[in-house]
UniProtKB/TrEMBL annotation:
PANTHER family named in the record: COLLAPSIN RESPONSE MEDIATOR PROTEIN, HYDRANTOINASE/DIHYDROPYRIMIDINASE FAMILY MEMBER
Sections of the chain in a coiled coil: none
Name recorded for this polypeptide: Amidohydrolase family protein
InterPro entries, per the entry: Amidohydro_3 (IPR013108), D-aminoacylase_insert_dom_sf (IPR023100), Metal-dep_hydrolase_composite (IPR011059), Metal_Hydrolase (IPR032466), Metallo-dep_Hydrolases_sf (IPR050378)
Domain of life according to the entry: Bacteria
Ranges of residues in domain Amidohydrolase: 47-535
Source species: Streptodolium elevatio
């Protein structure tokens, strides 16, 4: 593109941070026909956006979202759109909603209910289900329009259900089934999927509390699907590691597959396990393995009710209750034998996500409003019992077991997190935007990173921070015309004030189909202008009246 004519729009007077990590510099940015047409001094355009005192950067790319269903009823993709995010990747952890067959729509909804805290009634009311294969899903999103640029992984759980039916929840695949899965995966990659995503995590339990289908895949199936990715040379492979394939295995496998791997998540823990993973990553990269651990600048904090205690369901004794209803759960909570079995499971060798009772506080209680905000350990001490028994006793006092607790699972060691966030070959991820909407809202990841860590704690220069949010993510995905401010690239741009940028408050609203409830964060500070493909969706901190749906379905190309 040339700059010899008046541009459609010029962002003037700002400091350009272009996504490469290069030093900031003063320049105007011109946009014509949706793309950046020039970067320089004294540019003119039919519309001007002032950026004096602000940074002009590429739009942020969120590589770990679960907007697969929400994109249909909320194509603006709130609240990500308020935080300078211009491109999102859905389908993480293997939980895409395509490919699918009509008889499995309910199964997918119930799976998402258990693993991602999505309301079944909302999903039933909000998903059009006018697609079956993965290319058809992308086409469906494209027909309806989307406010941000959108791409998605094809998920392993959906893929198994599509090929194997309900047997996907029960057994390993046969050789013909593996071959069919491979061809479906190949077609999906060629249609532009962001890559292939899978999960082997113990926390991921689907219908009736059973392990999600991807957890039943054997090594022959995994190797065959990865071989398709190697042959197609497209996108990324995203893992939530577990028993079938551990984190160490990823560094052994990746060089042969060729495309980058990423996994969730590298977080600080009281056990110090993160220290080994940091060293593993350094050693792996030194040997040529391109594995990107996803890191988050936010403590992993959940607000959950005892009617659906997501954070406790990794305990197999709690997992047994997922197939039942409220009456079964209430009876179990009152049963001393259940309590003792649950405690024993947490005390067993290799127990996973053992609660850190010291992080538990009361978030909501109709029966005990005076306890709001109080630590569970303090309440237990006053009652002369332990935190676990106190927790269940409080829940039983609620008519619907709807005692809501807030707890921290990991990532709250500030000193250790400073080191992890600064690691060169770790990438920002795990916002989980679109998932766990009643329990957490980490969509403000980018504004939190820039405010709390870059400005307040001086973690790194702003140019390096912007690169982590933009160019690094584009390179991992293999995008060739996004993630940087360069002439000819799509004009995905965020203009922000480095002195004030912050995530703002989180609030609980009911604005989803079927009166669905969620947490949202729609009032960040310091995000001034946002452009998606050259179209301003936010000007001077306010969403534009004609924001429309300027996003594109991004079809990830073959790698060179």
């Amino acid at each position: 593109m040339t700059a010899d004519r008046t541009a459609d729009l010029v962002i003037t007077g700002g400091t350009v941070v272009d996504g490469t990590g290069a030093a900031p510099y003063a320049a105007d940015v011109a946009v014509t026909d949706g793309r950046i047409s020039a970067i320089g001094q004294g540019l003119t355009g039919r519309q001007t956006l002032d950026a004096i005192g602000h940074i002009v950067a590429p739009g942020f790319i969120d590589i770990h979202t679960h907007y697969d269903a929400q994109v249909f009823w909320d194509p603006a993709l709130t609240p990500s759109c308020f935080h300078g995010v211009t491109t999102v990747v859905a389908g993480n952890c293997g939980f895409s909603i395509a490919p699918t067959r009509p008889e499995h729509h309910g199964v997918i909804a119930r799976t998402l209910e258990n693993v991602e805290d999505m309301d079944v009634a909302t999903l039933e009311a909000g998903i059009p289900w006018d697609f079956s294969d993965f290319p058809g899903y992308l086409d469906s999103v494209e027909r309806r329009g989307v406010g941000l640029n959108y791409t998605a992984y094809i998920g392993h759980t959906a893929l198994r259900l599509y090929v194997m039916g309900m047997d996907a929840y029960e057994r390993a695949a046969t050789a013909p089934e593996i071959a069919e899965m491979g061809e479906v995966l190949r077609t999906s990659l060629r249609a532009g999927a962001a890559g292939f995503a899978t999960s082997f995590a113990k926390t991921h339990r689907g219908i009736d509390g059973k392990p999600v289908p991807s957890r039943l895949a054997d090594r022959a199936e995994i190797d065959a699907l990865l071989a398709v990715v190697r042959e197609e040379r497209r996108g990324v492979v995203e893992f939530t590691p577990g028993e079938q394939l551990g984190i160490d295995d990823l560094y052994e496998i990746q060089p042969d597959i060729g495309v980058p791997f990423t996994y969730t998540a590298l977080m600080t823990t009281p056990t110090g396990a993160h220290e080994r993973l940091v060293q593993l990553n350094r050693d792996g990269w030194a040997k040529g393995a391109q594995v990107w651990p996803q890191v988050s600048p936010r403590p992993l904090t959940f607000s959950f009710t005892l009617a659906e205690p997501f954070t406790l369901n990794s305990n197999p004794v709690f997992g047994e209750l997922m197939a039942g209803g409220a009456d079964e759960r209430r009876a179990a909570y009152a049963d001393p034998a259940f309590r003792e079995r649950a405690l024993a499971a947490w005390q067993a060798e290799g127990a996973f996500l053992v609660p850190r009772w010291g992080t538990y506080t009361v978030d909501e209680s109709s029966a005990h409003p005076g306890l709001l905000g109080r630590p569970l350990t303090d309440i237990a001490a006053e009652r002369g019992t332990d935190p676990f028994h106190t927790l269940l006793d409080l829940a039983l006092d609620e008519p619907g077991l709807d005692l809501r607790m807030r707890c921290v699972l990991a990532n709250d060691d500030v000193d250790a997190l400073l080191g992890i966030l600064a690691e060169e070959n770790c990438t920002l991820g795990l916002s989980d935007a679109g998932a766990h909407v009643g329990q957490l809202c980490d969509a403000p990841q980018a504004t939190d990173f820039l405010g709390k860590w870059v400005r307040e704690r001086d973690l790194m220069p702003v140019e390096r921070a912007v690169r982590k949010l933009t160019g690094v993510q584009a390179d991992i995905l293999g995008l060739t015309d996004r993630g940087y401010l360069r002439p000819g690239y799509w004009a995905d741009v965020v203009v922000f004030d480095p002195a004030t940028v912050a995530p703002g408050p989180i609030r609980r609203v009911r604005d989803f189909p079927a009166d669905g409830e969620r947490l949202t964060a729609d009032q960040p500070t310091g995000i001034r202008h946002v452009l998606v493909n050259g179209h301003a969706i936010q000007i001077d901190g306010t969403r534009t009246a004609n924001a429309g749906l300027p996003g594109q379905v991004v079809r990830v190309p073959i790698r060179n």
